[in-house]
Design goal:
mainly alpha; 10 helices; 201 residues; elongated; disordered N terminus
Length: 201
């Protein structure tokens, strides 16, 4: 199966793949997930629909991989190790500037709505976005446990991802402002680290 996937992916260069992902994200911002079609992606990227289906299998996988590719540090996930949990969480947050966060916030709001009516999109998100993100947070937290910063039996460990997504999403819902680096860094120090019993300085 891995050989088939490799053969499938080898038809497109990384540069071309990045161009396709950028075009998909542009279309998502313009028309939303439900109105996005493989025909539109093919036309926008001057690709054949057959190539798109051969490479990604369908719209859900293409969209999930485009969002994952667009995340800062996606290619080098897991390499951040500042020596402290606070440093690691701050470094993860600082990979996106305020402009990127505002764009991603609007995009994710639209996709969150689409997920409810599209089980294939939810499955693709779990595989290509949520799974890798959870794995990265688990590595960061395990290092904190190994360093003695966080107790291994702290129940908040299982909810760090929920807290981070909650802070990101609630910023626009409650404050009617986009998430920013300053907001998320203060949120980490005021909410996430205390819940974990970790140092906030």
């Amino acid at each position: 199966m891995a050989e088939v996937a490799t053969a499938r992916r080898s038809r497109i260069t990384p540069e071309r793949e990045a161009e396709l992902y950028e075009a998909v994200l542009d279309l998502l911002r313009e028309v939303g997930y439900d109105a996005l079609t493989m025909d539109a992606v093919a036309a926008r990227t001057k690709s054949s629909k057959a190539t798109l289906y051969r490479q990604w299998g369908g719209k859900a996988e293409l969209v999930a991989k485009a969002v994952r590719h667009n995340k800062p540090g996606a290619a080098g996930a897991g390499v951040i190790d500042t020596g402290s949990l606070r440093g690691d969480l701050h470094a993860l947050t600082l990979r996106s500037d305020d402009c990127e966060m505002e764009q991603n916030s609007a995009l994710m709001r639209g996709l969150a709505m689409a997920v409810h009516g599209n089980p294939d999109l939810l499955e693709a998100f779990r595989e290509h976005l949520i799974g890798p993100e959870l794995a990265e947070f688990r590595r960061v937290l395990q290092r904190a446990v190994d360093r003695g910063e966080v107790r291994a039996d702290n129940p908040a460990i299982d909810f760090v991802m929920h807290m981070m997504i909650g802070g990101f999403a609630a910023r626009s819902l409650i404050d009617e402002q986009p998430p920013t680096q300053a907001f998320l860094l203060s949120y980490i120090d005021a909410v996430v680290l205390p819940a974990l019993g970790a140092a906030t300085r």
